[in-house]
Amino acid sequence: MTHVIYLALVGLVGGTFGSMVGLGGGVFIIPALTLFLGVPIHQAIAASLVAVVATSTTAAAAYVRNDLSNMRLGMTMETMTVTGALIGGLVGASLSKGVLSAVFGGVMIVVSIYMGLRQRTAQLPPIDDEDLGTLGASYYDRNLDCAVRYKVRRLPLGMVASFIAGNVSGLLGVGGGFLKVPAMVLFMGVPVRAAVSTSSFMIGVTACAGSVIYFARGLVDPVVTVPVVLGVTAGAYLGSRLALRVKSSLLAVTLSVVLFVLSVQMILSAAGIQVR
After folding, report:
1. Alpha helices, DSSP H only, in the chain?
2. H runs (alpha helix) in 127-191
3. How far apart are CA 173 and CA 239, in angstroms?
4. What DSSP character marks residue 248?
5. Measured distance CA(170)–CA(82) in Å, rounded
6. What is the distance between the alpha carbons of residues 184 and 101, in angstroms, rounded to a whole number?
7. How far apart are CA 202 and CA 105, in angstroms?
8. Residue 275: count of CB within 10 angstroms of its CB
9. Which of 14, 76, 112, 132 could link 256 by a cystine bridge, Cβ 3.0 to 4.6 Å?
10. pLDDT by 10s per residue, the chain, length 276
């Protein structure tokens, strides 16, 4: 019973952080399950993919209700993300535990650095065009107390980033938001709040595609997955409500430090060195 409670708590924390920063929560859930609760990494990835679906469904509902998610842009980019997720899922289910742990740890280091630096991109001025184009949109920003209009640029570059994000998602069980959010902000001219909201909507579809492979191979353990998903659902609801009111800069720095520490432990674990 205690183990089940710990699994739910991991999901709660991962879901809260994931929905607030648009990452899906997998970057926290997987190392917590493998390092501290002894869950095999393939089962942890499978549970994370299912949990990311819950995170996306719950968080996206709040973002869509507040007109923050760009549905047209999200579905356009998702065509490439799903393709990448299917390929990544096939590769990830075939890799050994040590290789998968090392790859995940390396990717997490990149994620932690991105999280720590993301507040620098949060202040990029939105583009105000009369003609927003086919994929452009607008939303009301409570913090700025004004309507924000933006035009989507460099779509082909965003599609490439989506394919890579989907591949990483299926391979490692993460949402892929740490690639899609900066790509939308830095290359496509999407304001960070809209990028996070759109990413939260997209990662659920991506995770569905990747989780199919793990379901087919019998790697989804209900004993692990169900408590994590329940915790993630509650955390995603809480995080999506907090995200509309809380500035994410402090959260990003705090989470980046935690993820960096966990990533180092994952790499050491892959090398047979246990650090407690």
Report:
1. 2-21, 26-36, 41-65, 71-92, 97-117, 155-172, 177-182, 192-216, 222-243, 249-270
2. 155-172, 177-182
3. 20
4. S
5. 9
6. 28
7. 24
8. 9
9. 112
10. 788 999 999 999 888 877 776 666 777 888 889 888 989 988 998 898 888 887 777 777 777 777 788 888 988 998 898 888 888 888 877 777 778 778 877 877 877 777 666 555 444 444 544 567 778 888 877 766 778 888 888 899 999 989 988 888 787 777 677 778 778 887 888 887 788 788 877 887 888 878 888 888 888 899 999 999 999 889 888 887 776 676 656 656 766 776 677 677 767 766 766 544
Residue type, 158: G
Task: Count CB neighbours of 153 within 10 A.
Answer: 15
Max Cα distance, the chain (Å) = 58
Structure token pair of residue 206:
């991506």
Residue pointed to by tokens 């393709």: 83
Token digits of residue 268:
């050491």
Give dist(CA 83, CA 70) in Å, integer.
21
**How distant, in Å, are the alpha carbons of 59, 61, 192, 219 from that of 136?**
22, 20, 14, 40
Alpha-carbon gap, residue 155 to 167, rounded angstroms: 18
Q: Residue 38: how many CB atoms within 10 A of its CB?
A: 9
Vertex 116, ends 115 and 122: CA angle to 5°? 75
pTM to 2 decimal places? 0.74
Q: Quick one: tokens of 208?
A: 């569905």
Structure tokens that stand for 74 in this block: 């999200």
